Amino acid sequence: MRLKPKHISLLVLFVLIVMAPLFFPSGFYYRVGALIFINAIAVTGLVILIGYAGQISLGHAGFVGIGAYSCALAPVHLGISPVFAIALGAALSAGLAWIVGRPILKLHGYYLGVATLGLGILISMVLANEAQWTGGPDGIAVPDLGLRGLLRDWGFRVSAGELWYWLAGAVLIAGAWLALNLFDSPTGRALRALHGSDVAARTMGIDVPRHKLHAFVISAVYASVSGSLLALMNRLVTPDVAGFMHSVHLVTMTVLGGVGSVLGAIFGATILTALPQVLTVFHQYEHMVLGLVMILVMIFMPDGLLPSLLKRFRGRAGK
Amino acid sequence: MSDLLQFLFSGLTVGAVYALLALGFTIIFNASDVVNFAQGEFVMLGGMGTVFGIAAGLPVPLAALAAIMGTAFLGVALNKLAIEPARGAPVVSVIIITIGAAIFIQGAASVLFDKQIHRYPGFSGERALHFGGATLLPQSLWVMSGAAMIFVALWVFFTRSLTGKAMLATSNNRLAAALVGINTRYIMTLSFGLSAAIGAFAGVLVTPITMTAYNVGIGLALSGFAAAMLGGLGNPVGALVGGLLLGILEALTAGYISSQYKDAVAFILIILLLFFMPQGLFGSKHAERV
Amino acid sequence: MTPLLEVANLSIAFGGLRAVDDVSFEVRPGQIVSVIGPNGAGKTTLFNMISGLYRPTQGSVRLVGADVTSAEPHLLARRGLARTFQNLQVFPSMTLLENVMVGHHLQEAGATLPDLFGLPSSRRKTRATAESALSLLARVGLEKAAFREALTMSYGALKRLEIARALALRPKILLLDEPAAGCNAVETEEIDQLITEIASSGVAILLVEHDMKLVMKISSHIIALDHGRKIAEGNPGDVAANPDVIAAYLGQKGQEQVLHADG
Q: Which chains sit next to A, with 3 or more Cβ pairs under 8 A?
C-alpha cells in the first residue's frame, strides 16, 4: 500500500518523539521536550485556524489560560478530578469561542487581529485581577494529576519529566492525527477554499461563517488542552499563560515553521520553545533573538521554515 | 464635581499621549497599509533616550532632541530593513514582522539601557496647580499643548506643503499617486520617520508623569492602536478624538469603577465598535470588488 | 417550459451611479442567453447581484420559481446556481483536483466531527468526490494537471478549471463570466463545444463574453446593456442589426465583424 502524506507525517512525528530521548544528555531535556509538545498542541490548533482557514488570532493564549486555570480551580472548588478539569476547560473554551466567534470572525485582517487580541487580553486581565479566585499575578498552585502515583502503584517508576514527555507526546500525536484528518476532508477543503477565495467559496455553497466558526472553536479546544497540560505539569499557573506575549509566541511558532503544515508548525514550536531553554547563556538577548527571528523568517522565508527548506532541498535534488 | 475634574485632567493627559500614538499608527497605515505594532517602542525610546541623555550630562532639551532624532532614524531603518523587503506579504506576516520589531527593540533597550523604571523631573517644576478643587501637574500642560502643537503642525503640513499633499495623495490611492510621479517609497520612509519622531516626542513629554521602562512599549502600542481604531484607522482627526476619548474613559473607569480594569476599557470599546461600527467613528466604507 | 432564472427590474446604485438600471430577462432550461455591452455596461455587476454578492437596490431575482433576491451566495448554490468569475477566483494553493472537489461541497459536506476523526463515512465521501472531480477535469482537458497547484497554471487553464468547478455543483443555472478570455482559437473552439454540450443537457446558461464570434454562434438569445440599461434583446441576428446596439457598442468596425460572423 502506498503511504499517504498524512501517514508519513504521523510516522515522522512518532519516530522523532520516540527517538529523541536517546540523545538527551540529562533528565532536564524531558521537561524541555514536554514543553515543546505542549506548545505544539496549541500551535497545531492554530494551523487549523490560520493555516487552513486563513483567520488570524492574536488572543489564543486566552484559551490556554482557561484550560490552565480550569485545572487549578475546578478540582479545588468543584471537587472533580484534574482529568475532568481538562475536559471542563475544553468545554468552556469551546463555549466561549462559539459565542464570540460569530461576530469576531466577520472581521478581516487587522480588524480580526485586534478583536482577538482584545479578547485574549480581557481574559488575562480577569485572571490577573480576580485574585480571590485566581491568586492574582503571583499565580496559583495546581493539584497533582495523580498519574505518577498510579503508575508507581502498578510498579512503574518514572520521573515527572519522563511522564510529561510521553503524555504530552501522545496527546500531540493525537492532535496532529485529527488535524491531518481534517486537512483532506470535506470540512478541511472548505476551510482551505475560503482561505484561498472567500467569494468563490461562498458561490460553491460553503457556509463561510459556519466553517470559520468551527475552525475557531476547534483551535480554541487545542489551546485549552495545551494550557491544561502546562498547568498540570508545572503544578503552578500564572496569568502570563493567557497574556499577549504568549499569544504572539503561539502565532509566531505557527507561521515560523510553515503555516499550512502540521509538521512545519510543530517544527516552529520546537525551535521557539527550545532556543531559550537551551541557550540560557543568551538569556539577556532572548527578546532580541526572538524578534530578529520573527522578522527574518517572514522576509526571507514567507512560507515558513520547513516548506522553504524542503523546497530548497527538492530544488537541489532535482538538479 | 472636583473628582470629575480630576479624572478629566488625568484622562486628557493620557489621552493626548494616546492621540499622538494613534496619529503615528495613522500616518504609517496611510502610507503603507501597515499597522505598526512597534509604535509604542518609539514612545519608550523617547523617554529612555532622554533619561540616559540626561544621565550622560546633556541638558534636558538636547537630550530630548537626541532621543527624538535617534528614534526617527530607527523608524526609517525599521521601514528600510523590515517593512520594505516584505512588500506585498500577507497581513499575518506583516503583523508578525512589526510585533517582532517591537520585541527586538524592547530586548535591545533592556541590554542597551537597563531594566529599571525611570523618570526625570517635569520641565516646569513638580508643584501641582489647583483648579476647582482638582490638581494638575504643570507637565500635564506640557503634554496637552505639545500634542496640540503636533496636530496643528501636521495639519498645516498636510494641507500646505507639497510633500504633505503628496502623502495625502498616497494615502488616498497609492497607484494613482505613483502614476502622477509621487515617489511612494520615499513617502513610506518619511512616514515611518515622522511617526517615530512623534512617538518619541510623546515619550519625552509624558515620562515625568507616567515614568518609563524598557517594557512599556507593547502596552502603549495596544492602547494607541485601540484609539486609532476607535477614530477609524487612517483618519488623523479620528486619531485625536479616539485618543482623547479613550484617555478620558479610562480615567473615569479607574475613578468610578475599578482601577484594575481601566486597561480593559480600550478592548471592550474596540470589540463593541468592531461589532457595531466596523469602520470606526470617522471611517468610510469601501465596497468589495469581485 | 418555465424559466429557471427570472430577473425583473433589477437595479443597483453605487453612490449616485446606477450601475444596473431596471434590467429584466429570463433564462429557460437549455437556453444560452448572452449579455453583451461595452466595458462598464454593468454585466459583471449584474452577475454579482444574481449570484448574491451584491444586494440590488431594486427588483427581484427568481431561481426555479422561488424569490431569492439578496439571498446569501451559499444558499443560491444550494438552489442550483453556479458561476465562474471574470478575473479568476480559484483556490491558488490547492491542486486542480482539490479545486474541483470543493465544487462538490454541497454533496459531500456534512458534519465537522466525523471529518476531524477521519471516520469511514468522511473518507468514503472524499474518495467519491475525488473520482467525480477527476472526470470533470477530464471533461475540460485538465486531467493531466490534476495534482498541480492552481497557482502554477496558465490563465486559460484556470478559466477551464472554473468551469469544471462550477459543473461540480451540478447546477441548473450556470453563469459564465467571459469563459473564453485569454484562450487561443483552438481553446475557444473547445469552450464553445463545452458550453453547447452543457446547455443541451438542460442547464440554463447566462453568458458574458467579449468574443462576438462565439456569442453570435452559440447564443439562443442576446441582451445588450449600455450604461446599466437594457438597450436591446432578441436573437443574435436582430441584436446585431439593432442600430442602438451598433451605436453604443459595436461601432462601424464591429458591425462588419458581426455581419462577417453572421454570414
A: B, C
